[in-house]
Amino acid sequence: MDDIDAMFSDLLGEMDLLTQSLGQETVPPASLSSTNKETNYSMSYTDLNDSLYELEDTDLDALMADLVADLNATELKLAADMQGLKQPSPPPPDLPPPPQGLSPRPTSSPVSPASPAISTSSNVSTPTSSTTSPLPPPPPQTAKPTREEIEAQMKADKIKLALEKLKEAKVKKLVVKVLMNDGSAKTLMVDERQSVREVLDNLFEKTHCDCNVDWSLCETNPELQLERTFEDHENLVEPLLAWTRDSENKVLFQERGEKYEVFKNPQNFYLWKKDKKSLKDMKDQDKELLIQENFCGTSIIVPDLEGVMHLKDDGKKSWKPKLFQLRASGMYYVPKGKTKSSRDLVCFVQFDNVNVYYGKDFKGKYKAPTDCCFFLKHPQIQKESQYIKYLCCDDENSMNLWVTGIRIAKYGKSLYENYKTAERKAAVGSAWTNCSTPSSSNPSTPSPTIRAKSPSQANGHVPTPPPGPVTKDFGNVPPPPPPPPPPPMANFLPPPPPEPVRPSPPPLARKSSSKPALPQRHLPTNFPPPPPAMGGLPPPPLGPPMDDASEAPPDFLPPPPRSTGFGSLPPPPMNSLPPPPPPMSMDLPPPPPDPGCLPPPPPMFTAAGAPPPPPPPPPPAAPRAPVRPSGSVRKVPPAPPKRTTPSQGGAGGGGDFMSELMLAMNKKR
Amino acid sequence: MSAWDLLVTVEDLGSDAPPVTLSVASDLHVGGVILKLVEKTQIKRDWSDHALWWEQKQRWLLRTAWTLEKYGIHADARLVFMPQHKPLRLGLPNGNTLRLRACFSSSVFQTVMGVCRMLNIRHPEEHSFLRPVEEKKKKKDKDSAEEIYDLTEVPLSSASRPCLYNGMPAHFADSPQMEAIYKMLSVTQPPPAPEVITKQFRPASVVDKAHINGRWLDSSRCLMQQGIQENDRVWLRFKYFASYDIDPKYDVVRLTQLYEQARWAILLEDIDCTEEEMMLFGALQYHISKVSESEPQALSSSAAMDDLESALQSLEVKMEGESSSVSEMLENMTAPELNDYLKIFRPKRLTLKGYKQYWFKFQDTSISYFKSKEESIGEPIQQINLKGCEVAPDVNVTAQKFLIRLLIPAPEGMNEVYLRCENEQQYAQWMAGCRLASKGKSLADSSFQSEIQSIRSFLAMQKTSSGSHGNANANDESINPHSLVSPRYHKKYKAKQLTPRILDAYQNVAQLSLTDAVMRFLQIWQALPDFGLSYVVVRFKGSRKDEVLGIAPNRLIRIDLAVGDVVKTWRYNNMKQWNVNWDIRQVAIEFEGNINIAFACVTADCKIVHEFIGGYIFMSTRSRSKSDTLNEELFHKLTGGHEAL
Question: What is the interface pTM, i.e. ipTM, of the complex?
Answer without folding.
Answer: 0.85
